[in-house]
Amino acid sequence: MRKLRFLSVALFLLVAIIICVSFGGTKIPFAEVMKSIFLRNSSWKDIIWNIRLPRVIMSVIAGAGLATVGSVFQGLLRNPLIDPYLLGVSSGASFGTVLSLFLVDAFGLHLLHRMSLLSFTFSILAAFMTLVLSRRNGITPITELILSGVLVSILFSSATILVMMVLRKNITHAYVWLFGTLSGITWKEIPLPLLSIIGFTLICLGLAQQLNAISLGENQAKISGVNVEAVKILIYTLGSFVTATIVSVCGVIGFVGLVTPHMVRRLFGNDHRVLIVTSALTGGILLCICDTLARTVIRPSEIPIGVITAFIGAPVMFVLMKRSDSSG
Amino acid sequence: MAEIVLKDVFFRYSPKNNFAISGVTLKVDKGDFVALLGPNGCGKTTLLRIMAGLLPVSSGLVRIDGKDPAKMKRKQFSKIIGFVTQDFAPVYNYTVAQIVLTGRLPYSRGFFSTWSKDDIDAVRNALDKVDGIKFMNSFFYNLSTGEQKRVAIARILSQNTPILLLDEPTAHLDPGHVIKIKNLLKSLNEEGKTLVAAFHDINTALELCNKLALMKEGKILFCGTPEQVMNIENLEAVYDVQLSIINDPKIKHPIVIY
Fold first, then answer.
1. What's the pTM?
2. What is the ipTM of this complex?
3. Binning pLDDT at 50, 70 and 90, where does residue A327 land?
4. Mutate which of B99, B102, B120, B144 to disrupt the A interface (most A C-beta within 10 Å)?
């Protein structure tokens, strides 16, 4: 039964990708999409291969990455309210992007903006600061980690607002990015997030039993022989790296990393061997659909994808909470 | 060789705090069943955590099976000593089998390893001992408190260690479950396992254990066989209340009335 559900999710993702490619500024007939993808002999081929597919693929990668990191972080910290931005990665990335917009505005440094280099650098810096600040006597206590993450986030958010005050011209662009956008994604931007999410997923699957033990309690895991500190540092570092590669390309997309693991836990249970893969698939589906809505609801304009994920994620989270209450 | 040796052990949670454990010396031999007794906050749980290698001592010597826990790899250490804590409360609802399987982690062969037949057999065995096969595939939070306690014990039993530490194994259980747990502990001790358990119920300790350690304010005040340490003066010195002891020829051990 569980295998069937698992296969259904994988198949659903495949179908979602193909259907979502046909939606956008212009509706492309489904038959043309199939011809373009599998036979490459349609007149829509260039639009599909150069614009739609990279964008849809990136939405799947970003959704999969955020959901996987979210599910693993929630297990590691035994806290269902944790999301991939725990270590301040999103605030760091936001500051990096706004700073790069400022540099474009003030000094014409376009290279920095296009490569999302500053965004990536500051998101990694924020995660590093959080980890260093939370360390105490050679360990990383959960409360200190969460508090340090909040403090670092506030610091970078304040710095972001400060730069935005100075940077009045490009403020709309900054706002769109701050709520996430997959507009203008090309194949070039895909390899780093893709490789990082594949690597992270494989490592987490390898450590799935240890993650199960840690989610019973850190002491329980230590009693059963798990090197808890090593697993925590490895997962925090790699998880934040994955998040940074996504956020620096797509902006801050909220809710996917928080809500998807809750949905998946209800469907497939809490065993990390299953949870990690199904979170990736479900997160991919969710963001793929959200991005399609973002680019079609008020076409030809686009809505920031974070707005769509929030509109869908908040009610879903509310329903899950209510159901959890009623089932005791 | 003694299984557990503590010599002049001191421990405090932070430099600002007083010592939670103050100059404790204790020797536990192979096959012993030692009870830690004393009022709330006397340091029983802290002492068990030190033995389990979860807390580093401020000073003193700790040897488990002749080795220093601080210098052993966690995985090796967890093949020697298992610890049933009192606070076993997973945030996420796992099945009983999934929980008990985590006790087999010391025997996993590393990255991507799957459970072997030995692991599955060990889980079944452990659940069988706690009479838990019937709820093997149930979710933890669908079980009663007594059943949950048995799952926590089964998890550590599947770890298959020669030494078992237990923190209040019979707390919050009804008489039926208390008797089941007591019988289980007796049979584990008879199998040759060394047990150290913290108890609130003095009579349970008297029924099960061959050695008692009476603790107060982080110190072991009296330690020895029940006959050596169980008297009114010692009990009143530890608990600061008046107690009485009666000897009933029908019952093998004295009974403390309070």
1. 0.89
2. 0.91
3. very low
4. B102
